[in-house]
Specification:
Bound molecules: 2-oxoglutaric acid
Strand content: 15-25%
Number of helices: 13
Distance between the termini: 34 Å
CATH superfamily of one domain: Jelly Rolls
Largest sheet: 8 strands, antiparallel
Low-confidence stretches: 1-22, 28-38, 381-413
Length: 413
Amino acid sequence: MVRNFLDLETSKGTILIFILRDVNFSCSHLNNHPAPPKGSLHDVILLWERLHPTPNQQSVLNLLKKIADSGYKSLETFKIECRTVPGVHHLVRDIFDNENIHLRDTRTGRNAGSKCDFFAAWEALKDNPGADINDRLLTPYSAWGVKAKENGLLACGLRPPQFLLDPGVFISPVGNGEELPLASKDELPCFHSIITPAGTITDVHCDCDIAASLLVQLYGTKVLFSWPGTKANRDYFQHSVGIDHHLRLPEAVSKMTEGFKFTILKPGDAVVLEPGMIHAVVSPENSAIGCWEYVDEKWFDNDDIKEGAEWIVNSIKSRGPQLPTDESKEEIYNPLRYGLSMWKCLLQNLQERQRGKYVEGIRDFVEWLEKELPEEIIETGRSLSADRVEGSTPATAKRRMQDNAGKPTKRRK
Ligand SMILES: O=C(O)CCC(=O)C(=O)O
């Protein structure tokens, strides 16, 4: 089946096949087409069997087969609306329009590589998913923190679901744990993507215990393994906090059974990663997922956020001065510092709009967390990338995002 951007640009017939086979975004010009079949675990296994049989690929293949035999539950997914179906050409433009993207060797987890390295392996695996990734010329790299730009994914007019546009929700305008000063709070929300070649397996990790992500599958297939941050799961996961490559996926699936979900994501599927959700993602084929990061005042209807924050603060502190080898002090606190900045922005918004219900609870939480984090972490913040969201303007950003969905985007010269 055709799924590359060169073919897309040279054959109208190919474009039609691509849309029918791969896409189930809710797009105005696609409304008359029947929904494509939902991806099954059987399809995922077939895709995975095509990969070069490294020990890691074999262990995930065995895991997929075990899950197929034992049955599984999935997270709730919903559709995201867009004006134009995202294609590889949007991803390519975003990759080149971002000066700094983060590239990670999918075999070692090391941050390294160039855009050339990324595309060499991406193209090789598209043509031949079974290519031997031990060949140094096709080491696969995943690209993450790739911000949507005007001629890239922003041109697709992806419409966030209504609940994200509520005034009690704050969507980060920076993404990826970057520094988020209060002065940036009215900038346009950031949508950024993670682009992974076939065979990518992430660590079992938790993005943030005090903020959520809304993930939107953009291209290809990804499979999400997830666990809620319950006491039992956290007790098990605690020793992996801040340590990359610590907990193996098969071990996590067999040991953390509480609330385990296995979710196959096809283009157009969206899913919420709740605060504190432990997860891992595997990519059976070249694929991309996009993300909005946010906080929501309604979480203060119960104590979960405070409890999650206490748990992670205590987990970090229990390590004493001896931090895990692959995280610096800044890095291990970064998700908390970043989440805290989002809560401060939301608090400011709520105060400006005189929405009183949750203000006191959020203010107490912010003050408490500020005392818990080392001073230098709060003061300096760590900037992971120099690139900022393009086209950001003050004040009406969120409303504009809603208004603009469905309208043509001005092209950049
Ligand atoms: O898309 C992927 O491969 C990884 C996504 C992920 O783990 C995340 O968004 O935290």
